Amino acid sequence: EGEGEAEIDYVFKVVVVGDSAVGKTQLLARFTRDEFALDSKSTIGVEFQARTLTLHRKRVKAQIWDTAGQERYRAVTSAYYRGALGAMVVYDVTRRATFEHVPRWVEELRAHADGSTVVALIGNKADMPAARREVAADEAARLAEEQGLFFSEASALTGDNVERAFLTLLEEVFAVVS
Ligand code: GDP
After folding, report:
1. How far apart are CA 98 and CA 92, in angstroms?
2. Ligand 1 touching residue 25 (CB < 6 A)
3. From the CB of 167, is ligand 1 less than 6 Å away?
4. Which family does the UniProt entry place this protein in (predicted)?
5. Phi and psi for 112 in degrees, rounded to 5?
6. Kind and range of the H or E run holding 165
């Protein structure tokens, strides 16, 4: 299976945003390497991870960008968003505040990214026990509908729905650019 640059038909930049510690880095590791790193901050300073896949017989290189901790200082720069065709806004289903901040992240995306950027809302850590849950799936689905976003819960830890969420987003991006 060739991965050479010459065979790439499209490069899709996808940015992952959301509050600190919602699992952005782990979602990216799960999708690009099928890994869940216990030393979660080993990727600090790494700008993006790539995975090449075939969509509708085209070779698509998905470049998934990680904030690498910038969000802690509210310093996600416009360079981060520039050229992003897709975006994932991630919250943690066990921390309500991370969900309450979703509209802020969506606004920031809309302000910095292109108007046609496809946005997905992801409720991560769906593997956590029900008693720890602070955000119901149907509430998040409602918010997503209002904001015109694709929504899915997922777990970077178990891998549940991670592949499907990224593929759905990439398919939507493909539909926009092709
Ligand atoms: P980031 O700051 O948004 O990049 O978050 P990280 O990817 O570094 O994850 C923050 C913490 O949440 C780490 O301790 C991870 O091990 C943990 N974590 C990430 N994803 C999941 C998940 O799906 N389930 C559970 N239970 N923990 C997770």
Report:
1. 6
2. yes
3. no
4. Belongs to the small GTPase superfamily. Rab family.
5. -105, -30
6. helix 162-177
Structure tokens at 76: 């996600």
Q: Which helix (H) or strand (E) holds 92?
A: strand 86-92
Q: Are 15 and 80 in contact, with CB atoms under 8 Å apart?
A: yes
Confidence grade of residue 67 (pLDDT, cut at 50, 70, 90) = confident
pTM comes to 0.93
Instruction: Name the residue with the closest Cα to ligand 1, atom 14.
Output: 40
Task: Tell me which of 27, 40, 72, 163 to substitute to probe ligand 1's pocket, judged by most ligand atoms within 8 Å of the beta carbon.
Answer: 40
At residue 122 the predicted structure's pLDDT band, cuts being 50, 70 and 90, is very high
pLDDT in tens, 74-96: 667 788 899 999 999 999 999 99
